[in-house]
Design brief:
Oligomer: single chain
Largest sheet: 8 strands, mixed
CATH superfamily: Alpha/Beta hydrolase fold, catalytic domain
Order of helices and strands: HEEEEEHEHEEHHEHEEEEEHEHEH
Shape: globular
Strand content: 15-25%
Strand order of the largest sheet: 1-4-6-5-9-10-15-16
Number of strands: 16
CATH topology: Rossmann fold
Radius of gyration: 22 Å
CATH class: Alpha Beta
Structural class: alpha/beta
CATH architecture: 3-Layer(aba) Sandwich
Number of domains: 1
Number of helices: 9
């Protein structure tokens, strides 16, 4: 091969490498929050803390992103098929990133109270349907992906998907312990954008009532909503005949704290727009998601009625289709990241 061609190839590789590289100015990891049980003189235990790892890029933007997961830290990390997830996308875009494990989960598993975990033999099938990759119903030997789904349909990606779930402990006590610790972390970091997902949606709303350092909340498919005690909407009908509460009642003074920050709630695809009798039994989770969207719409209306700045975004309605319960990990996650970047820019939360 002529020397000139070799040199050009070397320059091309060097240029591509330079474009993909970015500088991390600081990184680290540590516990946060928690308490001490017992007496050091007779026996004690440090417990109920969270764990955070952080990276700060060179020339960082002023407001960091604090990423809070429900299922696993994988939620915000490398995608199921090995592409960059939100952590690296937003580091590349100049944001300091803090990735948490909340108390009693993951690397913060040392709790002050006993917990138990019971394996569920059909968990693979349940989560495949619940998280809207497609349908995997009883009797089916293999899963049936939705047409156009933005999930990488390789055996490796599916294997990773089935292995990321942490046990979740969604009791009021756990929510209180987790939000106390998360509020303490934000008080240590300073004003931050809180990214939540699924069952950590409620953790975001409650954390914002415990600290003034929530600069904004972006919640992906939150599992619950909050309302002023005096303004609870009526129950929401579910397709199986049950009625579900519209959300959690909290004091008006706490609810009004949610009007002091911009809020964006984001939903993926394949969520029923109306009740359909087909969505019962093993498909009931699909109607539950429809109920969650209604809860979010009602909460957004309540926040804005009290002078807040909240928006509920259904991705198919803005032309973004095929997303699962994990849009930050889907094949089009850069497009989802761009939506977040536009929100941060609109709210002037991307300044350096």
């Amino acid at each position: 091969m002529p020397a000139r061609i070799v040199l050009l190839l070397i320059l091309a590789v060097a240029t591509a490498t330079a474009q993909s590289a970015f500088v991390i100015r600081e990184q680290g990891a540590r516990p946060f929050g928690g308490r001490v049980m017992g007496d050091p003189a007779t026996g004690s235990l440090h417990c109920d803390h969270g764990y955070v790892e952080w990276q700060i890029p060179d020339n960082p933007r002023r407001v960091p992103l604090v990423m809070v997961h429900a299922s696993s830290a994988k939620t915000w990390d490398t995608t199921f098929d090995g592409r960059e997830g939100f952590r690296h996308i937003f580091l590349r875009r100049g944001f300091p990133v803090y990735l948490t494990d909340l108390p009693r989960t993951g690397r913060a598993g040392q709790g002050c109270a006993p917990t138990s975990y019971t394996p569920q033999p059909n968990n693979d099938q349940v989560w495949f349907t619940n998280w809207r990759l497609g349908l995997w119903l009883p009797g089916d030997q293999t899963p049936d992906f939705y047409p156009g789904v933005q999930f990488p349909q390789s055996p490796r990606a599916l294997n990773e998907f089935f292995r990321i779930q942490y046990p979740e402990f969604n009791t009021p006590e756990n929510e209180a312990v987790e939000t106390d610790a998360l509020a303490m972390l934000l008080d240590e970091i300073g004003p931050s954008v809180l990214l939540t997902h699924s069952s950590t949606g409620i953790r975001g709303w409650l954390t914002a009532t415990k600290t003034s350092n929530v600069a904004a909340i972006v919640s992906y498919e939150p599992g619950d909503a909050v309302f002023p005690e005096s303004e609870m909407p009526p129950p929401i009908a579910r397709v199986d005949g049950m009625t579900l509460p519209p959300g959690r009642p909290i004091p008006m003074a706490d609810f009004l704290k949610l009007t002091r920050m911009p809020i964006q709630i984001v939903w993926g695809d394949y969520i029923p727009a109306a009740m359909d009798k087909v969505n019962t039994g093993p498909r009931l989770s699909l109607d539950n998601r429809r109920v969650n969207v209604l809860r979010a719409k009602l909460m957004v209306e309540a926040i804005n009625r009290h002078g807040g700045d909240a928006v509920n975004v259904l991705l198919p309605e803005i032309g973004i289709r095929g997303n699962t319960h994990f849009p930050m990990l889907d094949l089009n996650n850069v497009q989802i990241a761009d939506l977040l970047s536009r929100f941060l820019a609109d709210k002037r939360l991307d300044r350096r």
